[in-house]
Amino acid sequence: MASLSIGDIVLCSQIAYRLLTAATTGRKNAPRDIRELEHTLLALNFSLTHLQKASTVILSRNTNLEPDAADIQKHLGVMVRSCRQTLEDLERMTAKYRDTMKDFTSIQSIDSPGYASLVTLKIQWRRFMWDLRGESLTRYRQKLETHSAAINLMLNTCIWSTADRIEEDSRRQGQRLEELLHEASNFNGIFSHLMQSIHLPIVSHRYSISPVSSPSSVLSGSTLREDDPSEIYTPDNHGHMVSSQIRAQ
Questions:
Q1: Residue 52 lies inside a defined structural domain of this protein
Q2: Is residue 210 situated within a structural domain?
Q3: Which residues neighbour 51 within 8 Å (Cβ) at sequence distance 6 or greater?
């Protein structure tokens, strides 16, 4: 089944506009049912105009990622083609009268050539519109109203579907952002713990090292005893360490 076509929408709009022009031009005192048909054609033309503007967005939706996109395009395609069929039927029924009317639009007075033919044409038009009145005209008007209502319903469905899709995307993005923040928090905790585990052994090792002997004692070859700082050992002439006491100053 064929999908939605922008060309079908444009063609429907053109036919509806031609019929609307034919129903309003030179008929100020048209019967009520003709005026109702005029209003129906006007509403349908508005619906088709909105559909034509929205069709770009509708056709741009990815049918692989959005399962409902293909169904919406298919249903709208069926609606537009059905509407086109109704408009073409109505246009064919009024074609010869509308084409003939164009030849007499320049006639302004009774003395103008072809005035009698214009009067005859108006009579024929009234007879034709009388034939369309009643069940036939009502049937066409109801069909056009149905097409207009169906198109508006599908447009509203597309709008709500788009709004729901945007809301769902926002919810997913918010959820993903929370996950990233949670992962970042966990990473910061792990990194802090890792740095502490590296820093503590270094500090502990630094404070566990014995104090280095003073430079003077090293140069003189003497060493201090840790248990008795006042006693030092110095080498004698034979290389043996001899204990001696440091005098108090």
A1: yes
A2: no
A3: 9, 76, 80, 151, 155
